[in-house]
Amino acid sequence: MRLVTLFTAMALGLAACGSSQGPITLASPTVPETYQARMDTGPDGEPLQIPAVRAAYLTERNQRQQVAYNGTEAPGTIVVDPYARVLYHVQPGGQAMRYGVAVGRAGTGYAGTATIARKATWPSWRPTDNMIRTQPDLYAQFSDGLSGGMHNPLGSRALYLYEGGRDTYYRIHGTMDPSSIGKATSAGCIRMFNQDVMDLFDQVENGTTVVVRSQAESVRMEGPMSETPEGYVVPAGQAPATAAAAASMPAQVTDPYAVTTVSTPASAPVVTTMSPVESAVQ
């Protein structure tokens, strides 16, 4: 029965958009130590291995990296930019750790200043009442929720944002679909590679301030963005990858958690495969 539930959840597709930019090149053909497989303690105290992130998913903008930060937020603040699809953890000295994120529809439905009021390891997930009401064939089977674990679309960690003591229903969380990071998806809030959200989770406390940028703030701070055929965003006007760089990419990327199978060259079709849904959490 669990397999039926898992595959049903995975069949709920995550949409990504495309435009006229060229393909994204990989930052490195190897997987950095940060994104290697690691062991964790599962929801019932069992050992649980987090799979390594495939090198094909680690574009330059997706990998965590220390960058100069030109915002005015105090060190320790988390800044989410759903439009540039990055998350900053502000550091002292005008620096920040930048992470790539995936953004669902709900990820652009909130802007403002919130506070992390709750943190959860291996969080449970439940579709909203509205999702169950409008798409009962898809969501009714999950009305009692899914417990945390590798079958859960929220991944390894979740940070719950509140404003004025009220739940914003805005979450920062992991994912079972590492291929989606850097892209727009059909549901959910802000997702990160499991390795990234696990480390961020350990670095922040309840009460941490989270600033979520509006689209106007994003353009002011990051500049306008364009979307590539693969669904990633890059600064508008950035030169597309050369044909040689595109040719150096793997001919095909497949993964048990992948949202798509990506073929090269860039003109080749992109075949949609199964992926888990990301949405509200209980």
Automatic annotation (TrEMBL):
<dbReference type="InterPro" id="IPR005490">
    <property type="entry name" value="LD_TPept_cat_dom"/>
</dbReference>
<protein>
    <submittedName>
        <fullName>L,D-transpeptidase</fullName>
    </submittedName>
</protein>
<feature type="active site" description="Proton donor/acceptor">
    <location>
        <position position="173"/>
    </location>
</feature>
<dbReference type="GO" id="GO:0071555">
    <property type="term" value="P:cell wall organization"/>
</dbReference>
<keyword id="KW-0328">Glycosyltransferase</keyword>
<keyword id="KW-0732">Signal</keyword>
<dbReference type="InterPro" id="IPR050979">
    <property type="entry name" value="LD-transpeptidase"/>
</dbReference>
<dbReference type="GO" id="GO:0008360">
    <property type="term" value="P:regulation of cell shape"/>
</dbReference>
<keyword id="KW-0133">Cell shape</keyword>
<dbReference type="GO" id="GO:0018104">
    <property type="term" value="P:peptidoglycan-protein cross-linking"/>
</dbReference>
<comment type="pathway">
    <text>Cell wall biogenesis; peptidoglycan biosynthesis.</text>
</comment>
<dbReference type="InterPro" id="IPR038063">
    <property type="entry name" value="Transpep_catalytic_dom"/>
</dbReference>
<keyword id="KW-0378">Hydrolase</keyword>
<comment type="similarity">
    <text>Belongs to the YkuD family.</text>
</comment>
<keyword id="KW-0808">Transferase</keyword>
<keyword id="KW-0961">Cell wall biogenesis/degradation</keyword>
<dbReference type="GO" id="GO:0005576">
    <property type="term" value="C:extracellular region"/>
</dbReference>
<feature type="domain" description="L,D-TPase catalytic">
    <location>
        <begin position="76"/>
        <end position="213"/>
    </location>
</feature>
<keyword id="KW-0449">Lipoprotein</keyword>
<dbReference type="GO" id="GO:0016757">
    <property type="term" value="F:glycosyltransferase activity"/>
</dbReference>
<feature type="signal peptide">
    <location>
        <begin position="1"/>
        <end position="22"/>
    </location>
</feature>
<feature type="active site" description="Nucleophile">
    <location>
        <position position="189"/>
    </location>
</feature>
<keyword id="KW-0573">Peptidoglycan synthesis</keyword>
<dbReference type="Pfam" id="PF03734">
    <property type="entry name" value="YkuD"/>
</dbReference>
<dbReference type="GO" id="GO:0071972">
    <property type="term" value="F:peptidoglycan L,D-transpeptidase activity"/>
</dbReference>
